[in-house]
Amino acid sequence: xxxxxxxxxxxxxxxxxxxxxxxxxxxxxxxxxxxxxxxxxxxxxxxxxxxxxxxxxxxxxxxxxxxxxxxxxxxxxxxxxxxxxxxxxxxxxxxxxxxxxxxxxxxxxxxxxxxxxxxxxxxxxxxxxxxxxxxxxxxxxxxxxxxxxxxxxxxxxxxxxxxxxxxxxxxxxxxxxxxxxxxxxxxxxxxxxxxxxxxxxxxxxxxxxxxxxxxxxxxxxxxxxxxxxxxxxxxxxxxxxxxxxxxxxxxxxxxxxxxxxxxxxxxxxxxxxxxxxxx
Length: 279
Prior knowledge:
Elements: E1 4-11, E2 15-22, E3 27-34, H1 37-45, E4 50-56, H2 61-68, E5 74-78, H3 93-105, H4 120-149, H5 165-170, H6 175-206, H7 211-215, H8 223-233, E6 263-267, E7 270-274
Parallel strand pairs: 1-4, 4-5
Antiparallel strand pairs: 1-2, 2-3, 6-7
């Protein structure tokens, strides 16, 4: 007797809707569980046979993947944008969970990569660094917008320097506008300090991965971009093989070819050497 079970999970903040199909596609169980580790593990501990589980990529995907991976035989985190069947017909949590189980049984899901845990710390530090950089850019743009709104030219970076801050604030005649600019300067100083801390932590963590030293041999790829590349790619083996190289991203891991990946392109009317990750 075939004991395979295909389990679809529709995950939400408070509850998880579960649908269990057998090898013939018959619905044998439906349940609504709390989104808590103990409750989910207790449920899966009560199931017998070969367990194949799927749920959609989302806010809870990384946590749920780590929680369930040791307790099931197959775990697929699927791409919700590729699940066309979920868009057809009626919509409900029970129906979505059942359709996910049916797609898993038919091997019709597009998986999202969740395999590497060795670079998770680097990935989280990369996200932290990039978020702070984006926030810093927003504050700088808002600061310039204050001066432009009062017809004060502020081209270049001089407006951001601490040594010239008093002169720039003196150009704002309105007290309320000047106070707003002062608050933005305080945010700017705080985010610059946080960015330096995040940068140091990111570089320290990246040194634990030997591949970053090889990546830094590539032209226009410095320590920050090397760390971000490792955090993004994680491993070249997750990419589809191609005819030209073993893997799409395998060239990043080849120390013998790092001298040959810079090339020329036209930018601003001049040809220059560049790297594809360059901004």
